[in-house]
TrEMBL record:
Name by which UniProt lists this protein: Transmembrane protein
Highest taxon in the source lineage: Eukaryota
Amino acid composition bias (Basic and acidic residues), ranges on this chain: 292-302
Transmembrane region(s): 6-22, 34-61, 203-225, 237-255
Disordered as annotated region, ranges: 273-302
Keyword field: Membrane, Transmembrane, Transmembrane helix
Species, as recorded: Achlya hypogyna
Keyword Lipoprotein (UniProt): no
C-alpha cells in the first residue's frame, strides 16, 4: 500500500509541477488556466472514484498472491483472498478468458458461492458470522482457507465486528464523495463568470474532497486492523492507496481553480460618489461655494 500510495502521489505531484511551471512560463489567461485545472480535477476525481469502485467489488484487499496484468487481462491465482464484503478461496481468475473459479463466503449475508471447484466445501446456506466456532461448517471453512486456526479465528472476529461494517461503509462513502466532487467541479467549470455560483461550488468541492481524503485514510486504517495476520495486502488495498494520492491531487487542483476563478471573476468596481452640482433653488441660504447661475445665462468671458 505504501509503495502504491507513493507512486500515485509522485505521479500526481509531477503532473501538478509540470502544469504549474507551464502555466507560469506561458502565462495562460485566467479563464484558460482555471479551465485546465478544473478539467484535471474532474479527471483525477473520476479515476479515484473508479479505483474505489473496483476495490469494493474485487475481494483482494488481502491476498496470498497478487493480481497480475497480462496484456488486457487480469489474472489472479490465490488460495485465499479477502475483501470488504467477504473472502474467497481457491481462486483462479482470468478476465481475458472470461473464467472465474473459486468459492466465496460473505461475512454478513446468508450466501456461500462456489464455482468450478475440484474439491468443493459443502456448508449450509449461511453467512460466516452466523457460524459457531465449534460447528463442522466453521471447521470446513477454516480448513479450506489455508489459514491457521488461530489466524482464522482472529480474522473471523474482526470480520464480524464493527470494524468490518466500518470498512465497508467507508469505501462506499469514498465512492460517493469522489462522485459528488466531480459533479461539483463540473458545475463550477460550467458557471464560468457567475461569481456567486463559483464561490459556493468551489468551496463545496474543496470540503467534499477533504472529507474523501479523511474517509480514504480511515478506510485504509480500518482494513489494516481487520486484515488477517500474515496475509499481505492485495491489489484492491493498493487501489485505495492510489485513490488517496489522486484525491490529494484533486484537492490541489480544486484550490488552484478557486484562486484562478476568483481572480478572473472579480467584483465590479463601485463608482465613487460625486458631489452633485448646485442649481437653482438648491442653495436658498447662499452657503454653497458654487456661484449661482441662471439656466439661460450665457457664460462670462474674462
Amino acid at each position: 500500500m505504501i509503495s502504491s500510495s507513493c507512486a500515485g502521489l509522485c505521479v500526481a505531484l509531477i503532473t501538478l509541477t509540470v502544469l504549474y511551471f507551464y502555466d507560469h512560463i506561458v502565462r495562460l489567461p485566467a479563464y484558460r488556466s482555471m479551465l485546465v485545472y478544473g478539467l484535471l480535477s474532474m479527471l483525477l476525481g473520476a479515476m479515484a472514484c473508479a479505483l474505489a469502485s473496483f476495490a469494493l467489488v474485487v475481494p483482494a484487499w488481502s491476498s496470498m498472491a497478487s493480481l497480475s496484468f497480462t496484456g488486457g487481462s487480469i489474472v489472479l491465482s490465490s488460495p485465499f483472498a479477502a475483501g470488504a464484503w467477504g473472502y474467497c478461496t481457491n481462486i483462479s481468475m482470468d478476465t481475458s478468458a472470461g473464467t472465474y473459479f473459486g468459492q466465496c463466503v460473505l461475512y454478513q449475508t446468508n450466501s456461500v458461492m462456489g464455482h468450478g471447484l475440484n474439491d468443493p466445501v459443502t456448508v449450509a446456506l449461511t453467512c460466516l458470522c452466523d457460524l459457531h466456532e465449534d460447528s463442522s461448517s466453521y471447521a470446513s471453512l477454516q480448513a479450506a482457507s489455508s489459514l491457521s486456526p488461530s489466524v482464522f479465528k482472529t480474522f473471523t472476529h474482526g470480520a464480524c465486528g464493527a470494524n468490518a461494517w466500518l470498512t465497508l461503509a467507508l469505501v462506499k462513502l469514498l465512492i460517493a464523495l469522489t462522485a459528488v466532487s466531480v459533479l461539483a467541479q463540473l458545475t463550477a467549470v460550467c458557471a464560468r463568470r457567475r461569481r456567486h455560483i463559483i464561490a459556493h461550488t468551489t468551496l463545496f468541492h474543496l470540503t467534499v474532497t477533504t472529507l474523501a481524503i479523511v474517509s480514504c485514510v480511515a478506510c485504509l486504517s480500518a482494513w489494516a486492523i481487520q486484515s488477517p495476520k500474515g496475509v499481505p495486502y492485495g491489489a484492491a488495498y493498493d487501489w485505495i492507496g492510489f485513490a488517496l494520492a489522486l484525491t490529494l491531487a484533486v484537492l490541489a487542483c480544486g484550490f488552484k481553480f478557486r484562486l484562478e476563478a476568483l481572480r478572473e471573476v472579480a467584483f465590479s468596481p463601485v463608482p465613487e460618489q460625486t458631489r452633485p452640482s448646485v442649481v437653482k433653488d438648491d442653495d436658498p441660504f447662499g452657503t454653497s461655494q458654487t456661484p449661482y447661475k441662471e439656466d439661460n445665462e450665457p457664460p462670462h468671458t474674462v
